[in-house]
Amino acid sequence: DSQGNVIMVGYFKGSDFSPGDTTLMASSSEFDLYLAKYDGDGNFMWASQGVGSGEDMLWDVVCDHNNHIIVTGSFGNFTSASISLESSSLANSGMGDLLLAKYDSNGTLLWAKREGGSSRDWGRSVDVDELGNIYLGGNFKGGTFNIDGTPISNLGQYGFFLAKYNPSGNLIWYRMGNTPSVEIIRNIVVAPETGNVYAYGDF
């Protein structure tokens, strides 16, 4: 973040995990997601986890100009899976939905939301602009993908999307890459000088 602190995200499986002075308890799910914060010297500050019933993973993290922490990943791997992030609970609508969440600098959840459809969907990369708007890149597989309640029929095996949200998590716009072929997004970057968004992946 702007103070030189380091945020680490990921997931663990099977046994309890200690990223520092706190022990995160393994649940009965396949994987448990977590985020942890360290100061610039590597000293542990805090950690938080999501407890669910499926495969729960975080893939990327970014900090905005207020040192808020935005994370993305996926949760669940079957239709009835769900995940709890502090006081927020999200239900999976397919074989795995993408997760987008925002925390303050102390690790308190500000909001969390899901996007997804009938098959496997995941958030792959996240970035922010100078105004704190959030840019999310991700992928979806088969079936129908829903973004902010709008259903998109997938034309191939894998498709990708790019979306912009305001700092409160409200959708501003989205773009899709959706053909009968396979398209995968790997990473996105927002240029601070122009606000242009650059994405790369495979097709």
Tell me what you see in this structure.
The protein has strands at 6-12, 32-38, 44-52, 57-63, 69-75, 82-85, 88-91, 97-103, 109-115, 121-128, 134-141, 144-147, 150-153, 158-165, 171-177, 184-190, 197-202. Strand 2 (32-38) and strand 3 (44-52) form a beta hairpin. The protein is built from no helices and 17 strands. It has 203 residues and is mainly beta. The model has no long low-confidence stretch (mean pLDDT 89). Strands 1-2-3-6-7 form a five-stranded antiparallel beta sheet, with no helix packed on it. A four-stranded antiparallel beta sheet has the order 4-5-8-9, with no helix packed on it. The termini are far apart. 0% of the residues lie in helices and 55% in strands.
Number of helices: 0
C-alpha Rg, in Å?
16 Å
> What fraction of the residues are assigned to beta strands by DSSP?
over 45%
| Element-level helix/strand string | EEEEEEEEEEEEEEEEE
Characterize this entry briefly.
With 203 residues, this protein is mostly beta strands. It is 0% helix and 55% strand.
Strand-helix topology:
Blueprint: E1 6-12, E2 32-38, E3 44-52, E4 57-63, E5 69-75, E6 82-85, E7 88-91, E8 97-103, E9 109-115, E10 121-128, E11 134-141, E12 144-147, E13 150-153, E14 158-165, E15 171-177, E16 184-190, E17 197-202
Antiparallel strand pairs: 1-2, 2-3, 3-6, 4-5, 5-8, 6-7, 8-9, 10-11, 11-14, 12-13, 14-15, 16-17
